[in-house]
Specification:
By secondary structure, the chain is mainly β. It is built from no helices and four strands. It has a two-stranded antiparallel sheet. Strands 3-4 form a two-stranded antiparallel ribbon. Strand 3 (about 25-30) and strand 4 (about 30-35) form a beta hairpin.
Length: about 45
């Protein structure tokens, strides 16, 4: 999700959805996030 802005009721909400996969480098506002740095769930 990205593009944070005012919703119909005036509260902030996400206005756009973007799909990403693990390992993508994404930008949200002023921030950049390397998703490969996120912890992965154990698979048993």
């Amino acid at each position: 999700m990205s593009d944070l802005g005012p919703g119909p009721d005036g509260r902030r909400c996400y206005r756009t959805r973007h799909d990403y996969v693990f390992g993508d480098k994404i930008t949200v506002g002023e921030w950049s996030v390397d998703t490969s740095e996120f912890r992965r769930y154990r698979t048993s």
